[in-house]
Design brief:
Blueprint (H helix, E strand, L loop, with lengths): L5 E2 L2 E4 L17 E5 L4 E3 L4 H15 L11 E6 L2 E6 L10
Parallel strand pairs: 2-3
Antiparallel strand pairs: 1-2, 3-4, 5-6
Length: 96
């Protein structure tokens, strides 16, 4: 209803978390954001990226220049083992 472009069931943003609508920013699970390091839009649904994207939006809203350029990652502990991944989410080199 706000007029933002929606793609991949999320709000499209640039790497600063700005949408195409004046005054509207988006971060976290709802964002389909440009990742400056990847050079393309990514949709990442992990709380760590929501925090990082929110910090980027906040810095920009406060007048600083910031872009989302971290390599997305997550971890999960299962029993005594911890699984960690840092990747763009659409490919891999090795599975162990």
């Amino acid at each position: 209803a706000a007029g933002a472009r929606i793609e991949d069931a999320a709000v499209v943003t640039d790497a600063t978390m700005r949408t195409g609508v004046e005054g509207l920013w988006c971060a976290g699970d709802a964002a389909f954001a440009v990742n400056a390091s990847a050079g393309r839009h990514l949709r990442v649904e992990h709380w760590g990226e929501a925090l990082r994207q929110g910090a980027v939006a906040g810095r920009n809203l406060a007048g600083s220049a910031a872009t989302w350029d971290d390599v997305p990652g997550f971890w999960s502990t299962i029993g005594h083992r911890t699984l960690k991944q840092a990747a763009w989410g659409d490919g891999w080199d090795e599975v162990r």
